[in-house]
Write the structure tokens for this entry.
Amino acid sequence: MENERLEIHLLLEAIYLKYGYDFRRYAATHTKRRLEHRRKMADFSNFSQMQHRVIHDTDFFETLLLDLSINVTEMFRDPWFYKRVREVVFPYLKTYPFAKIWHAGCSAGQEVYSMGIFLEEEGMGDRVQIYATDFNELILQKAKDGIYSMDLIREYTANYQKAGGRRSFSDYYTADYESVIMKRSLKEKVLFSSHNLVTDGAFGEMNVIFCRNVLIYFNRELQDRVLTLFLDSLCPGGFLCLGSKESLKFSGVAHRLEIVSEREKIYRKKRV
Ligand SMILES: C[S@@+](CC[C@H](N)C(=O)[O-])C[C@H]1O[C@@H](n2cnc3c(N)ncnc32)[C@H](O)[C@@H]1O
């Protein structure tokens, strides 16, 4: 094994043994790029040196965890996706007196509040329980707080309108000088909790699972493990929504899902 690959292998092993976070089956190119970024920033000449710091300095590990988890997100990300969700997923949700939705890898919560807003507009706010999970506690706290920079609101408002929002986006938050805070009624509908898709188990009988822009960071074997976890967590006929660059094409579980909308990556668990 070439030295750098060996050092990365040992570093990921050390992170797993010391902190329990398992990045060993994340996509190798992504992991290497993120580790390289931190190595250069912290001025280490190789990954073995960085490993010593990771093991002995929890704060440094927390920084590295943020590097590896990639928390990029936005409200109504890919507005056309939300438009389609409204067309194909909501009619299904309306057939249930009570439904459960899981946002896995929810980052700072923008995806969760986007869905909460549309549920409210469809008059379904009280008939749905939303679960939102992420393995990064820091980012999960941001999701719970629901506070976003004012600078982002123009873009979020445009996305909301493109997605087919029916009111004024400002109905859903209270503005401060520099930030906005999401409406309490939206926050109250969500149960935020820590969940690691690599090491934790299935999550109840869900009607819809959103896991967008997360699988892209996993290798094929891990993607299949996580997709199986989703299938085990979905009720028959339940929907699975992935990110625009993610696909079931080469997955070993593709036969258990039917394609509802290829472009929007909306799938449905087959009824056996
Ligand atoms: C790029 S963000 C996507 C956020 C949102 N779903 C979206 O599409 O805008 C990826 C999120 O996945 C989370 N994540 C990465 N690995 C994870 C794991 N093993 N278990 C749970 N969440 C994970 C990261 O912490 C991050 O918040």
Observations:
- The chain has two domains: 3-69, 79-269.
- The two ends are 45 Å apart (CA to CA).
- The beta strands are 99-104, 128-134, 147-149, 173-175, 179-182, 190-194, 206-211, 234-242, 257-261, 266-269.
